[in-house]
Design brief:
Length: 450
């Protein structure tokens, strides 16, 4: 069997024959010209070298399928991963009670099936809270790790290819919890959420919690005003005031390491307002702050290195330390791209944040609304709404290759970009094209911006 790691965690174990079955089903549904080539069957027993070669080919195949907007979002592919996850963890389908946390520490208990996917669980929580259907799409379920001081460290947003109950119980650690939080970035959407009592309460609880944890910066005078609004239970006014504060609506990540402005700097990264904000401690102990706009990132990638475990096959792969890095290529000035790397166990979550910021920008550009981004159930089948169709995954970029101009291909796809003679970025050339997330929201810098 092959171990499939998703987001640095063992998701499932599958056999070659199961993957071949998935491949054949995808070909039947989408046609042979859409589905990538599959590693061929062999008549004789494979040698160790051939086994390793097949493993690499299968890995490339799964990445190519996942990154194709049609195949990767298909019910066929996602249900295959969900079923494999359930079989690997040997959790039978049965009714269970799952505890989901709210930002204020309140627990919502929902009765679900172990085989319920992320969207089913989200709907169950919304229904328990009386959150109206058209507001469900503004919220998401996140896997978090509770820290000693009662705060949360974000592991990832739960995805459509996983079963939340299985994901959290298979970690065998009570520190891991599922929490409900808003999942949009633009605070103008708060107005939609505040129209409804339950939406307002959820948003208020999250804002209070973020201020208490020091995620939103407050000075003495603002703190006094907020306190008095809290005593009057003026929730809308409280949120309106909070919206004016620094880091409102941002997700704050655990301290980690970056190579910007120099190698080995300690940094606290926050994501929000279509940017990654860096608070960097330089080797001189000086603290500097700056932001990287998502519209200036040409592309990004997450790389992980999993050390080979020599232990028995039964030993838990979660125990070996996975080193994760998020690197993005940033347009520093009109003709200078530079790679910036963040080394953090939360690299996946950072990448998911970047992708969702880009998706939201594209939905806004196409005139769609976030309300419609939530996938509707039609006769039990999942349908994506029209506005979501506008958010196609970006084209895959070729890996940087010093022998050719890397920008030509991209800028021809992005009509809004005029990049003249961009110099080559220094980057490891060993990364294949499938590791890149190209960025549809990428914009060049014109003379007037400088």
């Amino acid at each position: 069997a092959y171990n499939i790691h998703v987001n640095g965690v063992l998701h499932c174990r599958v056999r070659y024959s199961q993957l071949l079955g998935l491949h054949e089903q995808l070909r039947k549904e989408y046609g042979a010209n859409v589905v990538p080539a599959f590693p061929p069957k062999k008549i004789f027993t494979l040698t160790p070298a051939e086994v390793e070669q097949r493993r690499e080919q299968l890995e490339k195949y799964m990445q190519a399928v996942r990154q194709d907007p049609t195949l990767g979002g298909s019910e066929t592919f996602n249900s295959f991963l969900r079923k494999a996850q359930q079989e690997t963890q040997q959790i039978p389908t049965e009714e269970v009670v799952l505890e989901v946390l709210l930002s204020n520490g309140q627990k919502v208990k929902v009765t679900i099936l172990t085989s319920d996917q992320t969207e089913d669980v989200l709907e169950a929580v919304a229904s328990k809270l009386d959150l109206p259907d058209d507001l469900v799409g503004y919220f998401s379920l996140f896997l978090v790790r509770e820290t000693k001081d009662g705060a949360f460290s974000f592991v990832r947003k739960l995805q459509e290819f996983e079963l939340p109950y299985v994901s959290v119980t298979s970690l065998h650690n009570p520190e891991f919890r599922i929490i409900l939080r808003k999942s949009y970035w633009d605070s103008s959407y708060d107005d939609d959420v505040m129209e409804h009592r339950v939406g307002l309460n959820l948003l208020y609880a999250q804002t209070v919690s973020d201020i208490e944890h020091g995620w939103i910066l407050v000075n003495k005078e603002q703190h006094r005003q907020l306190k008095s609004l809290q005593e009057k239970v003026s929730k809308k006014e409280f949120i309106r005031l909070a919206q004016t504060l620094k880091y409102y609506g941002y997700l704050k990540f655990d301290p980690c390491i970056t190579d910007f402005p120099e190698k080995g700097c300690h940094v606290v990264v926050s994501a929000g307002n279509n940017e990654l904000n860096f608070q960097v401690r330089l080797p001189s102990e000086q603290i500097k702050e700056g932001s990287f706009k998502v519209t200036r990132m040409r592309c990004w990638r997450v790389t992980s290195s999993v050390p080979m475990s020599n232990g028995p096959s039964g030993s838990s792969p979660a125990k070996s330390e996975v080193k994760l890095e998020l690197a993005f290529e940033y347009l520093m000035s009109k003709d200078r791209l530079q790679w910036v790397t963040i080394t953090s166990p939360q690299a996946i979550m950072l990448s998911i944040c970047l992708q969702s910021m880009v998706d939201e920008l594209m939905v806004k550009k196409s005139g769609g609304s976030i309300r419609k981004m939530f996938r509707r159930r039609v006769n039990g089948a999942l349908r994506r709404s029209d506005s979501q169709q506008a958010v196609k995954s970006p084209p895959l970029l070729d890996s940087p290759d010093a022998s050719r101009e890397p920008m030509a291909k991209l800028s021809s796809k992005l009509t809004s970009v005029s990049l003249r003679g961009i110099s080559h970025s220094s980057s490891a050339n060993d990364v294949g094209a499938n590791d890149f997330h190209g960025n549809y929201a990428f914009e060049g810098i014109g003379d007037e911006d400088l």
